[in-house]
Amino acid sequence: MTGRELALRALIAFRREGTWPEQYLKKAGSALSPEDASLAATLTYGVLERRAYLDFLLDAFGSRPVSKLTPQVLDALRLGAYQLVFLDRIPASAAVNETVKLARTYGNAGAAGYANALLRALARAVPDGLPSIPREDLLTYLSVQYNHPRWFVGKMRKRLGDEGCEALLAANNETPAVTARVNTLKTTREALLSRLQEEGISARAHAFLPEAVTLDSAKTLLRSHALEEGLLYIQDTASQLCIEALAPCPGEQVLDVCAAPGGKSLLCAQKMGDDGTVISMDLHPHRVELIEKNARRYGADCIRPLVGDASRDMAPLHDRFDAVLCDVPCSGMGVIRKKPDVRYKDGDEIKTLPPIQSAILENAAADLRSGGRLVYSTCTVLREENEAVVDAFLAKHPEFALAPFSLPGIGEVPEGRITLWPHVHGTDGFFIAKLQKI
Length: 438
What we know:
Elements: H1 3-17, H2 21-28, H3 34-61, H4 71-86, H5 92-106, H6 109-125, H7 138-146, H8 150-172, E1 178-182, H9 189-198, E2 203-205, E3 212-215, H10 225-228, E4 232-234, H11 237-246, E5 252-256, H12 263-271, E6 276-282, H13 285-297, E7 303-307, E8 321-327, H14 353-366, E9 368-378, H15 387-396, E10 400-402, E11 405-407, E12 411-413, E13 417-420, H16 422-425, E14 430-437
Parallel strand pairs: 5-6, 5-8, 6-7, 8-9
Antiparallel strand pairs: 1-3, 1-4, 2-3, 9-14, 10-14, 11-12, 13-14
Helix pairs in contact: 1-2, 1-3, 1-4, 2-3, 3-4, 3-7, 4-5, 4-6, 5-6, 7-8, 14-15
């Protein structure tokens, strides 16, 4: 199997069963060479990031609308078009010929002939410039140009305006730098930067987080001994700012209700100087085992992993904690730039999330002692998962109120909640609300 065929199989699996490409590529590509595995990943994620625009081109240069093509042949054509338009290092002849082979294998001789004619026409057009998407219908233009679902574009236009929406969509299509947190339980930032330099890994101090570093790529870091030894943890700036809002202190009792794989629990332990207790809870036993493994690796002895369902009431935990982190499962519509498959979430499917998020918040709040603080957070930018959930909770619980906080690099948040945006703050799209039990 070639890298191109693995990419095609990954796209088919994602379309048919919703299988996450990362998981599929890792499992199915274990026997491939590193070069082929890398090509498969580049092609798979590239097509997912640009699928709407690729379909626009296939419609423009083909004699049949993409809606009439056999799905697996269409997936193959998308792979071919992506190579021709976006990958300069791949010769056009190789992109066309290899796609034709896939069209024949996963379709028939007729599909192969169609692929050959279409892709050769596209290849001839690339040097002179490709057709533009008409802007008359702005919703369609933005959705196709930036490959975001129409329902999401519509919501963001209402919230951010046309210019703000387009800036967000453009930022979602950029490759972000990698942020990693320094594990100050084991080292300092200066010592870590020196260690990474010794390993040939380029890194620099984060622009405003004193316990973080920035890297251009995570690929070399994944083979780093420093990472193996637990000297750093890959964690987006927004995720770290979430813990800045919670502000756990030495000696406190802290609860993280949806903790796996444990990154935020680890940062809590770090902020506390490993003094106190962090109950790090998750629903699935195998994910709780991962929390325990990470806690040992990073030297966070105050973490106590616990299997528990945060959407259900857990009476033994009531009124016990100084601080509670409620980072709930969400649609992930703030991390599109890192997980392109999120673009294909159904808007109707997301309607099932707020009731679950509300139940988790309700139960987590019961675990907070009087005077304690709770942070509700998500990695989405949708109001129905964020402000609406918090507002509904506050309407039922007059003993809680939004509490102001301050974030490094962002400033004061006097209203007690904030949405972080990729195009404004350079972070993942992320929501943070801080509640005080008064």
